[in-house]
UniProtKB/TrEMBL annotation:
PROSITE patterns: GLUTAREDOXIN_2. This is Glutaredoxin. Belongs to the glutaredoxin family. Monothiol subfamily. InterPro entries: Glutaredoxin, GRX_PICOT-like, Monothiol_GRX, Monothiol_GRX-rel, Thioredoxin-like_sf. Residues 16-80 form the Glutaredoxin domain.
């Protein structure tokens, strides 16, 4: 599987995912740190990919959604943006709503029959 296919699979199989330098608990850059803190403050689970531990993803991710920098945050398969946009959305209360809606839409709700 190519790096772009792995990125696509990760984006499509996780309602909320951040591609970042380092991990949410041990970020390796200030932008990744602030963006992951905003996601953590939303109080919902999210996936992450440490782009520093996978050189192919590090190299290919900027082409995936035509976004040149890290971190990159995807919600429901859509690129939300990087650090500045994420922080701005958090301050407006938009990020919390999006994250909550995305994570709740994937939880099983029982039989609708």
């Amino acid at each position: 599987m190519s790096a772009l296919e792995r990125i696509d699979q990760a984006v499509k199989s996780n309602p909320v995912i951040i591609f970042m330098k380092g991990t949410p608990k041990m970020p390796q850059c200030g932008f990744s740190s602030r963006a992951s803190q905003a996601l953590m403050a939303c109080g919902e689970e999210f996936a992450y990919v440490n782009v520093l531990s996978d050189p192919e993803i590090f190299q290919e991710l900027p082409q995936y959604a035509n976004w040149p920098t890290f971190p990159q945050i995807y919600i429901n398969g859509e690129l939300i943006g990087g650090c500045d946009i994420t922080i701005e959305m958090y301050q407006k209360g938009e990020l919390q709503q999006m994250v909550k809606a995305a994570t709740q839409s994937t939880t099983p709700e029982g039989d609708a029959a």
